[in-house]
Amino acid sequence: MGKLVAAIGKLLCCVQVDQSTVAIKERFGKFEDVLDPGCHCVPWIIGSRVSGKLTLRLRQMDVRCETKTKDNVFVTIVASIQYRAMEDKANDAYYKLSNPKSQIQSYVFDVIRASIPKLQLDDVFEQKNDIAKSVEQELEKAMFAYGYEIVQTLIVDIEPDEKVKKAMNEINAAARMRVAANEKAEAEKIVQIKRAEGEAEAKYLSGLGIARQRQAIVDGLRDSVLGFSGNVPGTSAKDVMDLVLLTQYFDTMKEIGASSKSSAVFLPHGPGAVADIASQIRNGFLQASTHHA
Fold first, then answer.
1. Residue 260 within a domain
2. Do you know which InterPro entries this protein is assigned to (predicted)?
3. Are residues 179 and 143 in the same domain?
4. CA–CA gap between residue 3 and residue 9 (Å, rounded)
5. Is there a single domain that holds both residue 88 and residue 127?
6. CA dihedral angle for residue 25, residue 28, residue 30, residue 32, rounded to 10 degrees
7. Using CA atoms, how far apart are residues 274 and 161, in angstroms rounded to an integer?
8. Is 220 a member of any domain?
9. Which residue among 135, 159, 183 closes a domain?
10. What pLDDT is recorded for position 63?
11. Are the beta carbons of 26 and 49 closer than 8 angstroms?
């Protein structure tokens, strides 16, 4: 049915042009006009005919270009080009280029292979938008003369050699491990510092407690001596001190004997030994009191 309608239309010199499409009208092989979408009369009997049709729709092509960076790394650049024929220059787009895709690809190759070798691999990733802009500007200047508009150019992928990607991943992994090790060492350092500060503080407080304990013992003994001397006339401080120390000595012996966990302890015992122990304890307390004062 469609072929029949087309045949009838041709017989009646009628041509239909679809939306987003233009037709190129020739007369005796020479360009005559650009036909817009709709129905047109093309009298073939006087040499007029439709040479071909040209779409005005936006088209896209991906161009893969392999090149080398400044640091001698081979990379594949994938550029996505969006382009379309210009309606007011449809005759140029139809006649001047037989294969617009091949022409666009050639210009993309030229720009990429001129710009990438000037950059390090890391800079290629950072400056891909600048590279895309350079490609777009070059294509606009070149393709405008052929009746094509470059709508947008994007660098959609940068693919280094597989070995290079593996090496880059290993470098990044090593760098992250180094940072993690530094952070771990710093944390351990802080823990050790805090532990040392805590131990120092504990020792300080322990020494302070021992000093206060000794001072309390000295103060208690002093009060006991003064109270006993006041209540029992004729006794000296030395007599009271000897009595207190002797009492503490026997209390200590009692505690050692009463403890179920105590081991055997051998101590000299006798009046002379007791006097010697009392003298040693007295001298120790007096020295502690003197140093504290």
1. no
2. Band7/mec-2_domain, Band_7, Band_7/SPFH_dom_sf
3. no
4. 10
5. yes
6. -40
7. 94
8. yes
9. 159
10. 92
11. yes
**Contact indicator for 214, 255 with CB cutoff of 8 Å:** no
On whether residue 276 sits in a domain, the answer given is no
- Residue ranges in the chain assigned as alpha helix (H): 2-11, 90-95, 100-115, 121-126, 128-144, 162-231, 237-258, 271-292
6 has pLDDT over 60: no
* Domain count of the fold of the chain: 3
Position with higher pLDDT, 62 vs 246: 62
Report residue 256 as tokens.
């050692």
Query: What is the distance between the alpha carbons of residues 202 and 208, in angstroms, rounded to a whole number?
Result: 10
Q: Are residues 165 and 176 in the same domain?
A: yes
Tokens representing 27 are 């007369």
Predicted pLDDT of residue 85: 92
In a domain, 292, yes or no: no
Domain range holding 200?
161-225
Kindly state whether residues 151 and 167 are assigned to the same domain.
no
Q: Measured in Å, how far apart are the chain's first and last C-alpha atoms?
A: 126
Residues 121, 163: contact at Cβ < 8 Å?
no
Q: Which of 134, 19, 120 is nearest to 68 (CA)?
A: 120
| 0.85 surpassed by pTM | no
Residue finishing a domain among 225, 253, 279:
225
Contact predicate 80/156, CB 8 Å: yes
In the chain, the amino acid numbered 7 is: A
Region 268-278: what's the mean pLDDT?
60
pLDDT value, residue 5: 46
63 shares its domain with 146: yes
**DSSP of 4-33, one letter per residue?**
HHHHHHHHTTEEEE-TTEEEEEEETTEEEE
Specify the DSSP element, H or E, that contains 64. Answer: strand 59-68
- Give the pair of three-digit tokens for residue 40: 């047109």
* Site of tokens 């390090």: 120
